[in-house]
Amino acid sequence: MTVRARSRVGRSDAPVVPRSGGRAVLALLVGGLSSGGNLLVAITVTRLESIGGVGEFALAFSFYVLGSGLVRSMVTDAVLAAGTGVTSAARRVTLLGTVCGAVLGAAGAGYGSPYLVCVGLALPGLVLYDYTKAIAVGVGTPSGALVQEATWAAVTGGAALAGLLRWVDAPSVVGVWALGGGLIGVVVGVRRGYALRPGWRVGRVESRVAVGFGTQFLLTTGSAQLSLSAVAAFAGTSVVGALSAGRTLLGPVNLVLSTAATLTLPYLARSRTESRAVRSRAAVRVSLLVAAGILPMTAAVALLPDAVGRTLLGGNWDLARSLLVLLALESLFAVPAAVGFAGLRVEQANRRAILLGILLGGLRVPVVVGAAVLFGATGAAGALAALALVSAVAWAGSYLLLLRHRAAHRAPAHRRLDPVPPGG
């Protein structure tokens, strides 16, 4: 008699073969719950706060995105691509979350911002939450991530309801949301047997790759978050608040993009040994699928009626309304950029990614800040959309060119279109 053994990610570092079929559906359900919870918090804060307070919350949330994205780039993506090292990698997640959280909490205390302090205290648990969810969706058991996300959504919903009924203020809602998510992340990590003591036990090669991709993230996606801090410093938190009010309505779109990114990397990794044509088609196919999925959502937000917008955002709707089309375009252009980045990560093109990140990141902050100072929130939103288009062309084009270059070098010399002469 044959007994079927069930592998559990987190109890073993053995490679896990992802199950097909319902994984994508469950991943979208997880993304939907996450989207709904974060959207509810953002709407609650937008209704309760002034536009300056909304901007302050937006900064705190952007640093949460920055911290979790940094961990995703330096640790999680490598685990998803390899399918191994899940348990030990959690120590690096905890270390990065603790360091980033301490810096953010100290900055919040000095600035006098309860939003920054709450997110800073919760950040170690929040990045662990993101790690456990990504592992479950990417190479583990997606149903576990669904239960995890449903629990946080219930906690968030209770806090948001109390805020909308005016029982608690906006900082209290954010505190329950952040600390609740952090606690759930720790509990899930313990239940799965992850090593949670902060540490960094990897070789020099792995460390160099992690630092390289962490730097690349800060210069690209991370620079988008850092630019908000620069806009707040030079143009005021009211401009950040207006951008945040518009992005609040696009929260579901951006979180679907994040979920799709979790599935894109292992999807591209599976065709790593195939021909250039197969890998190129895989990249184009996943880009079109994700774009087709979010297009109706972005169109619905861009064309949102005034009555609905005012119900959701209150008095801040008037400031957000004129920015929606530009911010929707930014979200659409993010699709090919994300696929291109995932492809470079699979190909381990570290130097190429960092160089491209330096070029794009060097443009982002001065362009967005300059547009915000000269033209306010509308100028900043237009700059973000234009930069997203440039990033899409750069990342997707770079990945396709890399595939072409490597295919040419693998081909026999007599079949190359550009043969290299002897000694050349």
Automatic annotation (TrEMBL):
Chain segments annotated as transmembrane = 21-45, 57-81, 93-111, 174-196, 217-243, 249-270, 282-304, 324-346, 353-375, 381-402
Q: Where in the cell is it found?
A: Cell membrane
Keyword terms: Cell membrane, Membrane, Transmembrane, Transmembrane helix
> Looking at the UniProt record for this protein, which Gene Ontology cellular component terms does it annotate, in alphabetical order?
plasma membrane
The way it spans or sits in the membrane comes to: Multi-pass membrane protein
**What InterPro entries does the entry give?**
Poly_Biosynth_Transport
Name of the molecule in the record: Membrane protein involved in the export of O-antigen and teichoic acid
Q: What is the lineage of its organism?
A: Bacteria, Bacillati, Actinomycetota, Actinomycetes, Micromonosporales
